Amino acid sequence: MSKMPTPYPETRKGDVVDTYFGTQVADPYRWLEDDLSEETAAWVDAQNALTQQVLSQITYRDKISATLKSMYDYERITAPFVEGEYTYFYKNDGLQNHSVLFRQKDAGEPEVFLDPNTFSEDGTVSLTTVAFSEDASMVAYMTSTGGSDWREAFIMDTETKALIGEPLKDIKFSGLSWYKNEGFYYSSYDKPDGSELSAKTDQHKVYYHRIGTAQSEDAKVFGHVDSEKYRYAGAGVSEDGRYLIAYGANTTSGNHYFVKDLSLENPQWQVIYDQDGVDVDWVTSKGDDIYLITNLDAPNKRLVKTSITNPSPENWVDVIAETENVLSISTVGGQLFANYMIDAKSKVFQYDLEGQLIREITLPGVGTASVNNGKIDATKTYFTFANAITPTTIYALDLATGEPTVFAQPKTAFDASKYVSEQVFYTSKDGTRVPMLITHRKDLVKDGSTPTILYGYGGFNISLTPRFSPIVAAWLKLGGVYAVPNIRGGGEYGKAWHKAGTQMQKQNVFDDFIAAGEYLIENGYTSSEKMALSGSSNGGLLVGAVMTQRPTLAAVAFPDVGVLDMLRYHTFTAGAGWAYDYGTSEQSKEMFEYLLGYSPVHNVKEGVRYPATMVTTADHDDRVVPAHSYKFIAELQDHHAGDNPVVIRIEKDAGHGAGTPISKRIEESADMFGFALYHMGIKSL
Questions:
Q1: Cα–Cα distance, 425 to 401 (Å, whole number)
Q2: Which residues on neighbouring strands pair with residue 606, listed in sequence order?
Q3: Close Cβ partners of 199 (under 8 Å, ≥ 6 residues apart)
Q4: Is the pLDDT reported for residue 589 higher than 70?
Q5: How far is CA 196 from the centre of its chain?
Q6: Average pLDDT over all residues of the chain
Q7: Are 479 and 512 in contact (CB under 8 A)?
Q8: Is residue 1 over pLDDT 50?
Q9: Burial of 3 per CB tally in 10 Å (0-12, 13-18, 19+)
């Protein structure tokens, strides 16, 4: 382990104290929440300077960077999709910061349609949503600057590529859904007072933009009155143009659902479902019949059919009933594809709209498959398949025969034949059986000496299924082990698995992750001295909580863009919507005390030797605001008793991760891998 080259920058302590249910809680670094202040900016620069000084000790970062580049440097394309007379697809030559949208007419040469690499010199402006009008004569597309969740929308004539009208501003957490060729629906919040990157955004609204009019004239169509106040709201038009569907939600789990029949002269919203705690999502429609996927009375989800004449739950009829495995649905060509997650791995079945099984789709192996949605008149579709050592391959699927054929198989520098990805099951603290995917070289010697990254998430019903990552491939090529446990809080085993890691059961998530680390050590994959903990966003909270509860579990910790101040997370941007998973400090005395008991910012103890830590965040993260990370590193630097460094890497002009240029991903990963290996005692590569 290396010693800190210089003292930590001084971080001023304020005298802010909050009182929760009679308990006073000091918040000495409250001033770091002000992302507009010069003092915060100076502090960021000082912290980044120190971090670069720490990283400069690591002489082999260039070698790691070269390995990362070699793993990224292969052509990647997406499955094609048809709009009008053209077939569109995204392609990245390998090291381009952003994938380019191409189009091709018949057997002609592909041409560049939209190239986000030209949007900015440094790659900090990215392309997000792209949506075509009914006849594909126009396209609306959104861009993000510096990784922000706030977006701009542009409208373009697809033939001439000329922009139409002025761009729409200040769109957030939104899709784009066209109604015929007349206009499209989108969602946003009122622009907040103060910092748009941290101020609370509470009421989401759906607007309709008519082509040829100013944004100021856009009509509010949903979520704009007191009886319809939602933190998240959205709307979309069915493929046949008949139905407008809207959802509203106040947390990330559960939503209210509504439909409007646009074929009527004066259509009114009809309630499909309007109670909290249940997920309802649109699948498709056929005439008066509406198909929905839901977890109402079905924790693992089921597909139901109802009628526009009376779409409420008492009239729902199962098309594909719930099973013991979690269901997701895609639809194309009037067919249904049921994708079941079995111990975090995919099985896919093809059904007709009456729920009659047509066939099981033969997958090329054990991993994650995803069938693309497509148009009602399609005769073929595409699905992707990947696992930890198999780069994402695209297969064409004939709907009539169910026969898959390879459409695009990437050629990478990663030699999968040298590696193995194995699923194991281990027992958590309370006896719960938890799966974990461990990927490593086939010739691994289990003597506890192998550098290992333990990566986790554990929240918001999100499932970590096997996938290929050039970043992980680089870690494997460097000789490391990469382990991903499917801990509670995720969606791998349905709603019950998710709920078992929420609110006053959140400790289960941390216990599952700790038990995963213990399994790796006990079975010789690694040791505490050779292990790093890693997680992003809710996973950053996971790492922060585990390293403060079990500081000796691992040598290195990477809390990335983490939710780390559990008493105040809900006061920033749309954070209040996370309360289903976390609860809030204002909810009850019991919930406050529970949150205080694990909140990473509030559980850094004086005189404890913490792992070598590199907190990572970005100055434009307006989802999990960087103040979480700022306050956590300030506490660590003040209390940490070890001589190994605890530092923060703050990316400028970047956000929560989406749209980050590949060049920045490579830089950050090289810094993380170098930091990990160096503080595992590896001084040369």
A1: 37
A2: none
A3: 192, 193, 572, 573
A4: yes
A5: 21
A6: 94
A7: no
A8: no
A9: exposed
Question: Can you tell me which residue has the tokens 């703050």?
Answer: 650
Question: Which residues lie below 8 Å from residue 412, measured CB to CB, with a gap of 6+?
Answer: 71, 74, 391, 470, 473
Rounded-to-integer distance, Cα 10 and Cα 338, Å:
56
In this structure, of 72-86, 103-117, 573-587, 646-660, the range with the lowest mean pLDDT score is 646-660
Distance CA 492, CA 376 (A): 30
User: What pLDDT was estimated at residue 128?
Assistant: 94
Q: DSSP 3-state assignment of 487?
A: coil
At residue 148, the pLDDT reads 83
pLDDT computed for residue 555 by the predictor: 98
Say if residue 657's pLDDT is above 70: no
DSSP 216: G
- 198 pLDDT above the threshold of 50: yes
Give tens-digit pLDDT for 570-579.
999 888 899 9
Burial class (CB within 10 angstroms; exposed 0-12, middle 13-18, buried 19+) of 680: buried
Torsion over CA: 413, 483, 683, 50 (sign): positive
Cα separation, 314 vs 595, whole angstroms: 39
| Tokens 């079905």, residue located | 298
Strand pairing partners for 87?
Answer: 82, 104
The span from the CA of 673 to the CA of 210, in Å, is 49
Q: For residues 16 and 565, what is the distance between their CA atoms, to the nearest angstrom? A: 15
Find, among 564, 630, 569, the residue nearest to 31 by Cα. 630
| Cα 576-582-583 angle, rounded to 5 deg | 70
Q: Are 618 and 656 in contact (CB under 8 A)?
A: yes
Helix H or strand E encompassing 589: helix 589-598
Question: If phi over 0 gives left and psi between -120 and 50 gives alpha, with beta otherwise, what is residue 460?
Answer: left
pLDDT digits (tens, 9 = 90+) for 487-510: 999 999 999 999 999 999 999 999
Among candidate residues 665, 677, 655, the one with its CA nearest the CA of residue 65: 665
Reduce the DSSP state of residue 610 to 3 states and report it: coil
CA 641 to chain centroid: 34
pLDDT at 203: 87
Q: What is the 3-state secondary structure (H, E, C) of 145-209?
A: ECCCCEEEEEEEECCCCCECCCCEEEEECCCCEEECCCEEEEEEECCCCCCCCCCCCCCEEEEEE
Nearest by Cα to 115 from 138, 82, 93, 137: 93
Return the amino acid letter for 390. T
CB 650 within 8 A of CB 681: no
Kindly provide the residue ranges of all beta strands, DSSP E only, lying in 287-432, ordered along the sequence: 289-294, 302-307, 317-320, 326-332, 335-342, 345-352, 357-361, 368-371, 380-387, 390-398, 404-408, 419-427
Residue 659: the pLDDT is 67
Terminal Cα distance for the chain, rounded: 16
User: How many other C-beta atoms can be found within 10 angstroms of the C-beta atom of residue 643?
Assistant: 11
d(CA 226, CA 249): 14
CA distances from 470 to 65, 385, 466, 606 (A): 12, 15, 13, 39
**SS3 string of 48-69?**
HHHHHHHHCCCCCHHHHHHHHH
Q: For residues 647 and 2, give the distance between their C-alpha atoms in angstroms, rounded to a whole number.
A: 13
Distance separating alpha carbons of residues 448 and 624, to the nearest angstrom:
35
* Enzyme catalytic residues: 537, 656
Q: How far apart, in whole angstroms, are the C-alpha atoms of residue 662 and residue 458? A: 26
Q: Report the distance separating Cα 560 and Cα 651, nearest Å.
A: 11
What CA–CA distance (Å, rounded) separates 506 from 595? 9
